[in-house]
């Protein structure tokens, strides 16, 4: 109840939902207005009334009966989900309820300055005479209840076995460097003679991997690292620089005890002719020192290109920890990218848990993998013709047919296969799904099997407000970074095909406590997809059995050769009570 005081009278006002006011007849309203004038007379009769118990109970019965007939036939009144929301009438716009000091009350119903601005635009510039604040608040509450992009209010996501997280076995981040490493840091950070420059290429996730290796190589050589140069992507034409994608100052700060990172070469080295190189695959620290250290000490600058998968996956323990430190802590996205990614993730989270899918269904993916999208003969012909015209795009195993590749698990899953897989794994039909990736070959038609099975299916464009993505739209690396953030924050993540993004998110989710990550067991499951005579219940049982150990549980990196510690951080970068590191 809000009170308005003046020198002569005390008036009281109470907020009543408009639906209730509309349901009361004009005579009832008049009786409410007249009640104050008769209050004194009724007070005189009150004593007589209470002296007659029969009359009292009979009157009470009549009032109850009247209330039942009045409101019992209108039980579906759409009461606001925020019963304490304050509403006001236009004539009181200058009153206490509209003072700035009460903005905190408004914010309690989810109303922000951004919402007010939107209301002003929708209401034709905020004309007080056309729409009252109460109507704006009511409209905003309805939008809040509806949720992003048509989320139905009242529909709850089924929280069953599908959303259950794997047992992380108590593993937590564990980056205790050895005494020798810490002692060596003093000389590395003091050095002002040696500088490493690197040019990284590919998409955003491929660039991340190369930046991680660049930091480790700088440490191996005892050199300062110049902020990596991002090569212009020839496919997407993205000219983003390091500071456009990543938080440069955070990058420098986190690595301050490991490697000195500088924004540019000092003036003393600007005229230096750098030593150039491109290491072969999987080189060791000793190879790097023997190949480059002597010349680097002489010339002062080393320029490396093409670092993708050049550094060995099997490094000394301290260097493995450094790789984790770069990948999981130092490489934070730039503030504008992180903010929009967080906003879109929050919109997905607003209605409960969500699944993120990384769909690899773009035209170039089908061409490079030697696979077919399976949409129609016309689309298959488009892919085959482009592959014939540009055979260099095929990534490998050119002697295999499409069917051989498919059965070997080398092809991306299409939308129908993804839908069948997650349905068999127990995803409820009402599951919220965020899909990351580029425009699929075939457009929306290619996604229809997923949309038909799981109608709550969104990407960043669906969830962003008008204009929110405008500054990122023509920069593929920034759009990929937004997908990365929303996917990493999901309750469950699944890629339709392997790749740099899937591997990076697998490591991030493991390092964050082994959040659920589904790895499709394509090679073993696809024969069952092709068996049309298999009953659905049996198909579901088989698929769940095939994936019972592929849900993001902790796996030792060393259990298989050639595994990357940024994908499998146990046990070099994570430890539990039974396997601890100092």
From TrEMBL:
PANTHER family referenced in this protein's UniProt entry, alphabetically: O-FUCOSYLTRANSFERASE FAMILY PROTEIN, OS02G0726500 PROTEIN-RELATED
Cellular component aspect of the GO annotation: cytoplasm; membrane
Name of this chain's protein: O-fucosyltransferase family protein
InterPro entries noted in UniProt: FucosylTrfase_pln (IPR024709), GDP-Fuc_O-FucTrfase (IPR019378)
Organism: Lupinus luteus
GO terms (BP aspect): fucose metabolic process
Pfam families documented for this protein: O-FucT (PF10250)
Bilayer topology: Single-pass type II membrane protein
Family: Belongs to the glycosyltransferase GT106 family.
Top-level taxonomic group: Eukaryota
Residues annotated as transmembrane: 55-72
Pathway membership, UniProt: Glycan metabolism
First-listed, main subcellular location of the protein, grouped into a coarse class: membrane
Subcellular location: Membrane
Signal peptide, first to last residue: none
GO molecular function: glycosyltransferase activity
Keywords, alphabetical: Carbohydrate metabolism, Fucose metabolism, Glycoprotein, Glycosyltransferase, Membrane, Signal-anchor, Transferase, Transmembrane, Transmembrane helix
């Amino acid at each position: 109840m809000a009170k308005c005081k003046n020198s002569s009278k005390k008036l009281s006002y109470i907020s009543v939902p408009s639906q209730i006011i509309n349901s009361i007849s004009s005579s009832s309203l008049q009786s409410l207005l007249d009640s104050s004038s008769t209050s004194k007379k009724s007070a005189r009769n009150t004593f007589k009334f209470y002296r007659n118990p029969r009359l009292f109970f009979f009157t009470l019965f009549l009032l109850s009966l009247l209330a039942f007939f009045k409101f019992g036939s209108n039980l579906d009144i759409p009461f606001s989900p925020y019963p304490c929301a304050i509403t006001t009438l236009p004539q009181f716009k200058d009153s206490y309820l509209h003072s700035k000091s009460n903005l905190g009350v408004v914010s309690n119903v989810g109303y922000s300055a951004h919402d007010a601005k939107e209301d002003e635009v929708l209401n034709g510039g905020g004309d007080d005479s056309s729409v009252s604040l109460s109507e704006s608040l009511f409209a905003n509450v309805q939008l809040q209840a509806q949720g992003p992009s048509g989320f139905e209010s009242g529909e709850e996501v089924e929280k069953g076995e599908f959303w259950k997280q794997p047992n992380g076995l108590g593993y937590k981040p564990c980056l205790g460097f050895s005494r020798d490493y810490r002692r060596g840091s003093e000389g590395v950070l003091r050095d002002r003679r040696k500088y490493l420059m690197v040019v990284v290429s590919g998409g955003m996730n491929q660039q991340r991997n190369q930046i991680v290796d660049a930091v480790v190589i700088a440490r191996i050589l005892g050199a300062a690292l110049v902020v990596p140069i991002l090569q212009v992507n020839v496919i997407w034409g993205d000219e983003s620089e390091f500071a456009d994608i990543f938080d440069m100052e955070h990058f420098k700060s986190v690595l301050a005890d490991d490697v000195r990172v500088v924004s540019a070469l000092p003036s003393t080295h600007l005229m230096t002719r750098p030593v150039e190189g491109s290491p072969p695959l999987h080189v060791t620290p000793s190879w790097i020192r023997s190949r480059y250290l002597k010349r680097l000490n002489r010339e002062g600058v080393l320029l490396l290109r093409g670092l993708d998968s050049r550094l060995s996956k099997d490094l000394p323990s301290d260097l493995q920890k450094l790789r984790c430190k770069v990948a999981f802590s130092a490489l934070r996205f730039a503030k504008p990218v992180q903010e929009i990614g967080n906003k879109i993730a929050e919109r997905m989270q607003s209605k409960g848990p969500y699944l993120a899918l990384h769909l690899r269904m773009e035209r170039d993916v089908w061409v490079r993998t030697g696979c077919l999208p399976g949409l129609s003969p016309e689309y298959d012909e488009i892919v085959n013709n482009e592959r014939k015209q540009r055979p260099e795009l095929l990534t490998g195993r050119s002697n295999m047919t499409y069917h051989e590749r498919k059965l070997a698990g080398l092809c991306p899953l299409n939308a129908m296969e993804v839908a069948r897989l997650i349905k068999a794994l127990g995803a409820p039909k009402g599951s919220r799904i965020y899909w990351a990736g580029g425009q699929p070959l075939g457009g929306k038609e290619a996604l229809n099997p997923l949309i038909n099975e799981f109608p709550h299916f969104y990407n960043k464009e669906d969830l962003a407000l008008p204009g929110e993505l405008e500054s990122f739209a023509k920069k593929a690396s920034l759009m990929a970074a937004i997908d990365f953030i929303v996917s990493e924050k999901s309750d469950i993540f699944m890629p339709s095909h392997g790749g740099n993004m899937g591997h990076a998110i697998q490591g991030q989710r493991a390092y964050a406590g082994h959040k659920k990550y589904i790895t499709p067991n394509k090679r073993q499951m696809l024969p069952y997809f092709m068996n049309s005579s298999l009953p659905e219940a049996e198909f579901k049982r088989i698929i769940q059995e095939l994936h019972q150990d592929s849900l993001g549980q902790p796996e030792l990196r060393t259990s298989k050769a050639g595994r990357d510690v940024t994908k499998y951080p146990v046990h070099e970068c994570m430890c539990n009570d039974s396997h601890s590191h100092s």
